[in-house]
Design brief:
Shape: flat
Low-confidence stretches: none
Number of strands: 0
Distance between the termini: 42 Å
Mean pLDDT: 89
Structural class: mainly alpha
Radius of gyration: 16 Å
Largest sheet: none
Number of helices: 3
Helix content: 55-70%
Length: 92
């Protein structure tokens, strides 16, 4: 089966490697320190995995909104998305 149709690029590979590393880190954290549901600024009680999912989903919307509104490189959206992820994972 040929994978030529997938058009893998370095940014794509880095993105999916980053997601895989985050999932491995979350699994390791769960094994060492089991998660406790808590309530932050999100309107629901969340676990670490829930906050990771919400952060990733929000990051996708940040990038899509950036493409729709701003005529600048995506590095700015990536910086905003990293800040969003940090805030959600810490206080979400």
């Amino acid at each position: 089966m040929s994978l030529e149709w997938m058009a893998w690029t370095w940014p794509t590979a880095v993105f999916f490697t980053g997601i895989a590393l985050m999932l491995l880190a979350m699994t390791g954290l769960e094994l060492v320190w089991p998660t406790v549901e808590r309530r932050g600024f999100l309107p629901i009680r969340t676990t670490r995995g829930d906050r990771l999912f919400v952060g990733l989903l929000g990051s996708a919307y940040i990038h899509l909104g950036w493409l729709a509104v701003v005529d600048a490189p995506l590095w700015g959206a990536s910086i905003v998305a990293l800040l969003w992820m940090a805030v959600v994972l810490r206080w979400g």
